[in-house]
């Protein structure tokens, strides 16, 4: 087994490889770390000098030419977002212009004004261009890029022979193959009331897993704590875990299901809910 850890995108990142030659392992993890840092630099919403900020969010034109990688990411987001009824919405970056409000009342007023510039209808992809209907809309890919980085890491490691791998970027996880022993990987699902310990374990193979929970990160608006998930949250559900073929797809659905647990997502997506009584509701087998 070969293990590599680094910090990026504000989280701890870990790559575990099984059944791979040491020379290959070093090349794999070096390429994964370099690519992850590249994506962080390119799509960082909070850095005014990032490509995302300069080219998209500070744009002076309605039609923005985009590279092939950005087009691929946004086309996937567009498709998956349709399943969520816009509960997941990268134009939420527009609302963060209201974060400077000094009172909750000012914040609510600013948010109400900004919402008209948001939503799936205000942006589209046309050939190699990203087209906007207004100048105020901003993208925040915070719920996209880390997940995409895991999927891109899988693309890198699949170029080398190995028995299996586990990639974990701050709880966004992809499991490829099995351990060198032939045993499956087991992934722990956090106890929302005590995140230091797992509430249950699940076995997955060649799938991406994400967990969303409003208990994890808080932001302050006018001195009041709010969930990092912007939207109307069903607070009876403390966390939602989703497993699909990609981490990006799982991440979008788990975020949306945190806001509406009744949301219908594709039949092949497995889900696990943990409620405020720590009861588990699932279509995903635990072990």
UniProtKB/TrEMBL annotation:
Please tell me whether the keyword Flavoprotein is annotated for this protein. Answer: yes
Residues spanning the signal sequence:
none
Protein's name in the database: FAD:protein FMN transferase
List the SUPFAM superfamilies hit by this protein, alphabetically.
ApbE-like (SSF143631)
Q: GO terms for molecular function, please?
A: metal ion binding; transferase activity
Instruction: Output the Pfam families linked to this UniProt entry.
Output: ApbE (PF02424)
State which gene encodes it. apbE_1
What family does this belong to?
Answer: Belongs to the ApbE family.
Cofactor details (free text): Magnesium. Can also use manganese.
Principal EC category: transferase
Its Enzyme Commission number?
A: 2.7.1.180
Q: Give cofactor(s), names only.
A: Mg(2+); Mn(2+)
**Binding annotation for Mg(2+):** 143, 255
Q: Which organism is it from?
A: BD1-7 clade bacterium
* Keywords in alphabetical order: FAD, Flavoprotein, Magnesium, Metal-binding, Transferase
What's its catalytic activity? Answer: L-threonyl-[protein] + FAD = FMN-L-threonyl-[protein] + AMP + H(+)
């Amino acid at each position: 087994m070969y293990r590599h850890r680094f910090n990026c995108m504000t989280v701890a990142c870990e790559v575990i490889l099984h059944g791979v030659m040491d020379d290959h392992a070093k090349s794999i993890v070096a390429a994964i770390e370099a690519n992850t840092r590249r994506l962080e630099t390119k799509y960082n919403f909070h850095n005014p000098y990032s490509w995302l900020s300069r080219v998209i969010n500070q744009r002076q034109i309605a039609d923005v030419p985009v590279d092939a990688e950005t087009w691929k990411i946004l086309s996937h987001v567009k498709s998956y977002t349709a399943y969520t009824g816009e509960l997941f919405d990268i134009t939420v970056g527009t609302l963060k212009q209201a974060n400077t409000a000094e009172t909750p009342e000012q914040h609510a007023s600013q948010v109400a004004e900004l919402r008209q510039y948001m939503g799936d209808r205000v942006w589209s992809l046309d050939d190699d261009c990203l087209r906007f209907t207004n100048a105020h809309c901003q993208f925040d890919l915070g719920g996209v890029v880390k997940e995409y980085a895991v999927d891109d890491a899988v693309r890198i490691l699949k170029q080398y022979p190995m028995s299996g791998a586990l990639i974990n970027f701050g709880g966004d996880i992809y499991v490829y193959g099995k351990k060198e022993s032939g045993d499956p990987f087991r992934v722990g699902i956090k106890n929302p009331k005590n995140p230091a310990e797992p509430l249950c374990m699940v076995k997955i193979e060649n799938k991406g897993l994400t967990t969303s929970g409003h208990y994890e990160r808080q932001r302050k608006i006018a001195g009041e704590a709010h969930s990092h998930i912007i939207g109307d949250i069903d607070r009876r559900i403390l966390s939602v875990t989703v497993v699909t073929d990609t981490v990006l797809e799982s991440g979008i659905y788990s975020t949306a299901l945190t806001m509406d647990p009744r949301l219908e997502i594709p039949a092949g997506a497995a889900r696990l809910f943990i409620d405020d009584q720590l009861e588990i509701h699932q279509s995903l087998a635990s072990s």
